[in-house]
Specification:
Blueprint lengths: L29 E11 L7 E10 L11 E9 L5 E11 L5 E8 L3 E10 L2 E2 L2 E7 L12
């Protein structure tokens, strides 16, 4: 529901249309944005500050496959607004469980599957599998 102060809610964010399987994830639906300046710290590059936006939305098609929410995320450099990273994917639940799975593909050539339990409004995702295109930057992967 909406108070209509901001206008009519887009169907992709309207929780009245959440499939039964995904109702435990309905609290994620919307746009989450942080512009307070996250800090990225890596041993091989200088520390930098970034902003990030994540969107969880209902699918707009009537696919009959396993129901999932659409997921998009991107990060940008807080100094010059240059896009640093983007990813797209799906988040779903294993039927009749509290097991959540997030599958993502990223503009750096990586594909990831993360899975974990849902506890109320908290999800602890663990890296389950990772893949990459053959010519992506060869970064080390930990935790598989």
């Amino acid at each position: 529901m909406t108070c209509m102060i901001c206008g009519e809610i887009e169907k992709k964010f309207d929780v009245r249309y959440v499939p039964e399987l995904l109702k435990p994830l309905a609290w994620l639906i919307g746009i989450w944005r942080g512009e307070t300046g996250g800090k990225a710290v890596f041993p091989t590059i200088p520390i930098f500050t970034y902003g990030e936006q994540i969107e969880f939305a209902l699918p707009t098609s009537g696919l009959k496959a396993l129901k999932a929410l659409n997921y998009t995320a991107f990060a940008w450099d807080m100094n010059n607004r240059e896009e640093l990273h983007s990813e797209y994917g799906f988040i779903t639940m294993k039927p009749n469980t509290k097991e959540v799975a997030l599958s993502t593909v990223m503009n750096n050539g990586f594909v990831m599957i993360e899975q974990g339990p849902l506890h109320g409004k908290s999800i602890k995702l663990i890296l389950h599998d990772i893949g990459r295109i053959s010519f992506s930057r060869d970064l080390p992967v930990y935790g598989v």
